[in-house]
Amino acid sequence: MYEANSGNGQAGDAAVDLRSDTVTRPTAAMRRAMAEAEVGDDVYGEDPTVNRLQARAAEIFGREAALFVPSGSMGNLIAIKTWTRPGLEVICEQRAHVNQYELASMSALAGCFPRPAFAEDGILTWPLVEPLIRAKSPNYSQTGLVTLENTHNMAGGTIYPTAVAEEICDRAHAAGLPVHLDGARIFNASVATGKSVKELTRKFDSVMFCLSKGLGAPVGSMVVGSREFIEKAYVHRKMLGGGMRQVGVLAAAGLIALEETPKTLHRDHENAKFLAEGLAKIPGISIDPKKVVTNILIFDVRQTGRTGAQISAELKKRDILANATDKFLIRMVTHYDVDRAKIERAIAALSEICATERAHA
Ligand code: TLP
Question: What CATH number did the domain enclosing 314 receive?
Answer without folding.
Answer: 3.90.1150.10
